[in-house]
Amino acid sequence: MGLLGLVWPSPGPALASHHHHRNWSSSSSLMEPHLLTSANSRWGVGVHQLQGCSSNSRGARSRVWRIQASSVGSGEFQTEVEAVRKMRVGAIKQELDALGVSYRDCFEKEELVNRLALERKRKRVVKRPVDLTRLPMRKLKSTAASPKEYIIIPLTFGSYGTFDFLLDTGSSTTLVSPYVAHSKLGIPPGSGQLSRGLGGMGDGGLDMRSISLPAMSIAGKPCKPVQGIIMDLVSTGLPPSVSGIVGLNVLSQFDVEFDFVKEHITLFELGAVDKGHCSKEGLQKLAVAPISFSLPGVQVDMGGGNVQTALIDLGSSLSVTTPSIAKLSGATLERSALSGVGVGGQQMAFSRAFIDVTMFTERNNLPFDKIVFRKVAFAVGDLPAMQAIKCNIILGLNVFNRTRLVLCMSTKTVYLQTFV
After folding, report:
1. 3-state secondary structure of 223
2. 58-70 vs 109-123: helix crossing angle, rounded to 10
3. How many other C-beta atoms are found inside a 10 Å radius of the C-beta of residue 282?
4. One Pfam family name from the record (predicted)?
5. Which of 186, 214, 303, 357 is most buried, by the most CB atoms less than 10 A from its CB?
6. Model pTM greater than 0.90?
7. How high is the pLDDT of residue 78?
């Protein structure tokens, strides 16, 4: 999660979408697998533990489709055509992509409609009930001295009870407080393996123990057993009601939709989104980039045409970047008395800047459109944890508060829909 207890009272970033074609290459910066960048970052980085049918003219294409349509049973096929015709072009193409069917020779919507209807008929696609779990997006404010907002996920540990955990896509593992681990979950003190880590503020030598967590579920949805870290989070200023932090070793067991407008979170079975079991209407596939520990990264431009990798960190209220990136963007730094506290109690001063953020969408593995967020508030400073994962930009909740975001960690895909 993010490391700072700071909130700047400012309106959310304005949005703009543009068609844009550009050439860029993915950046990849992976750490050695034995490195531990541990830590709950109330800014930024979380805990990471050690260890077919076309011809040359449109008229000809139409004739071919009419012949094909007549060969598959006019009644059923026409019903399928009418159903597909109600879909948007983007949704039709996405389903064709999922079916592995090319549509490069389709130049009109009706051609796409016929192609998908035919494929549905051929493959006899049967719509089955979608396996999903939906829960309200609960938010919790931190202490009065640190009035940040966090997303809460209820974790149920069998008969031990249900506890509130903070959601953190910037943490590869799950943390639990010593009190809950020992007094509520029955884990004896001294259990597990002692680990050392690096906090987001450079807190070194953190006292952490790796343990096997009891069987858990989210809103009745069972989770596979995972390892967790016992860590004291009191020094971070988190409310005492917080039992821990749920990281990607739990969240990556699902395709997860975060609808910040309707304020709910939906857990789908793995691969459900790419199989078309979740509505993709309005969603755009983002150009992703690898980050150490399989953290969710996307391609962004913060000015100057310099494409960078940015971490999607929903455990951070605000976004963070380095002084060098802020300088490249041409932003003016505001030297205010802002500071943050790490999990070990270390503090760090930050400047503030407002920077436009451009995300790139992807079609057929090529850059296609762009989504622009105007005047996003950034804390500017050199977080050691950012240096450890070789990522200079963290995108926090303040970027996504008017969006619908879908993370499919098993397939390394990210979808985004923006709302004005």
Report:
1. coil
2. 30
3. 14
4. Asp_protease_2
5. 357
6. no
7. 86
